[in-house]
Write a structure and sequence with these properties.
By secondary structure, the chain is mainly α. Bound molecules: zinc ion.
Length: about 70
């Protein structure tokens, strides 16, 4: 069982729970995976941003190569 922190009251909840046992607030159905999903979305966004910058601004590597 994976333990998570309730965003509302800060108490420990289990990933399988549907609501917080302390404050009774309903937990999102996928709250156990939300952090992972957010991380993947962030990673994809960073990759897209890098790709966009490479295409938009052709890199000039000369300062790094010392020429
Ligand atoms: Zn709570």
């Amino acid at each position: 069982m994976r333990e998570l922190i309730c965003e509302h009251c800060g108490s420990t909840v289990v990933a399988e729970d549907t609501k917080c046992h302390r404050c009774g607030i309903p937990l999102p159905p996928d709250h156990g995976k939300s952090l992972q999903k957010k991380f993947i979305l962030f990673f994809v966004a960073v990759c897209l941003f890098c790709l966009f910058m490479i295409i938009w601004l052709p890199p000039d590597w000369s300062p790094f190569l010392g020429r």
